[in-house]
Automatic annotation (TrEMBL):
InterPro entries on file: Bact_response_regulator, CheY-like_superfamily, HATPase_C_sf, Sig_transdc_resp-reg_receiver
Official protein name in the record: Two-component response regulator
Any one of the GO BP annotations: phosphorelay signal transduction system
The keyword tRNA processing is annotated on this UniProt entry: no
Pfam families in UniProt: Response_reg
Amino acid sequence: MGMTLQDLEDAASAPSATRSVLIVDDDRISLKFLDHQVQAMGYRTVLASDGHEALTILQHSPDAFGAILLDRIMPHIDGMTVMQKIKDNPRLRDIPVVMQTSAKSPEEIEEGIGSGVFHYLTKPINIDMLRVTLRSAMRTFETHSTNKQARTNSTAGFGMLQSAQFNVRTPEEAKVLAAFLSECFPEPERVLQGIEALLFNAIEHGNLEIGGPAKAELSQSGALRREIEQRLSDPRFASKAVEVTLTRKDGGVYVVVSDQGEGFNWRDHLKIDPVHAGNRFGRGIAMAGSVCFDKLMYNDKGNKAVAYVADGSALNW
């Protein structure tokens, strides 16, 4: 027998080792057989008779499961579509999916594995193989959850940060600060590259006055790093710093990057343009504006950038 709604809610708050297995199969006989076998292995089960029902259950209780046993061939919404929905959802993508199917062609198996399936079982299911696979899947999920929680605990304070101000001078300092600041945003991986691009531009083009064409030439010759180090020691630039301010307001997070340079024509660089595709300077600013932030603005002069990302944690399908 499958679990009730209350059982699901209890499982969602339980340690990962006691979480349930979601079994998805449109064949009622196969579903009952798998339910019996998986419960005999010591796991609690939840049953879904098609892909739509499975997605509904996952949407309601995304934290209740430690593994999913998914049939590939089903009407309406097939297993591959369900798999894609799972991998596209941040709250579900780490749950190991064991796909079971009668499709045995190398192309179909390769497609399944390529989609991120934890393991691929062909019908008729070998119960010993299923037992080993589910045990491995549960252990994998438990290990991942433990590691993820440790990372969450170490960065939990970033969400409490309301405002902070920093000064950086060097690219090395910029890398460290970018990694720190990214953790204050809803999706750190999304914004990291954009923050780095803004900081590097402020240091290299702004404070150190290495313009776009000069930067491209120095990069091609392998001399950019040496030129940056020399200018950082030059009395004309040694005292210059980039001021960085992070503020949480207006339902999101702002980062403001100000340099002491003469600015640049930012209007030519905010959108991805084939002209700048091979240029680290142009491409970095364009990626920041198009991909990394919800909004990116500059002052008229071009020596102050304001980037914004809205807070949001909705469960989207």
